């Protein structure tokens, strides 16, 4: 993926999905909201994590097992490390099924990011 390429994330049409925090343009964020939002952006600032998040969010059904994730240019232990960082930041949820862990982009996060990209018109 080139640096100038735009990747659109799907918007979940799930009733009850509430953005993780108020839109930045609505008001100055409270310190706790600012910390949470900054942690999410920090986690996504790594190219491998951004690719992993995008691949999981755009995967059919909105979830993926590590075995479903195609090559992102790093070893499997490094993929696990990055997935853990995305979970810690609140960007992904996970569920163990047998010996495998399935990851899903947190619906409120996808809704908030979609609103944010529209607000900033990140498409150029």
Overview of this structure, please?
- With 124 residues, this protein is of the alpha+beta class.
- Helix content is 43%, strand content 12%.
- It is built from four helices and three strands; from the N terminus they run H-H-E-H-E-E-H.
- It has a three-stranded antiparallel β-sheet with strand order 1-3-2.
- Helix 2 (47-58) packs across helix 3.
- The radius of gyration is 15 Å and the shape is globular.
- The model has no long low-confidence stretch (mean pLDDT 78).
Record the SSE blueprint.
Blueprint: H1 31-44, H2 47-58, E1 63-65, H3 76-88, E2 92-97, E3 100-105, H4 107-120
Helix pairs in contact: 2-3
In short:
The protein has 124 residues and is of the alpha+beta class.
**SS field, number of helical segments:** 4
- Spatial ordering of strands, largest sheet: 1-3-2
Low-confidence stretches: none
Radius of gyration: 15 Å
Integer average pLDDT: 78
Report how far the terminal alpha carbons are from each other. 16 Å
* Morphology: globular
| Overall SS class | alpha+beta
Main sheet? 3 strands, antiparallel
How much of the residues is beta strand, in percent?
Answer: 5-15%
Number of strands: 3
Jot down its keywords.
alpha+beta; 12% strand; single chain; 124 residues; 3 strands; 4 helices
């Amino acid at each position: 993926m080139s640096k100038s390429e735009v990747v659109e994330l799907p918007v979940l049409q799930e009733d009850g999905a509430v953005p993780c925090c108020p839109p930045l343009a609505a008001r100055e964020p409270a310190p706790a909201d600012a910390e949470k939002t900054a942690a999410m952006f920090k986690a996504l600032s790594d190219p491998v994590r951004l690719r992993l998040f995008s691949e999981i969010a755009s995967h059919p059904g909105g979830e993926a097992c590590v075995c479903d994730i195609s090559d992102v240019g790093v070893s499997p232990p490094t993929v696990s490390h990055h997935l853990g960082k995305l979970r810690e930041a609140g960007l992904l949820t996970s569920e163990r099924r047998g010996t495998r862990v399935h990851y899903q982009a947190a619906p409120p996060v996808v809704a908030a990011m979609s609103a944010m990209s529209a607000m900033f018109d990140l498409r150029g």
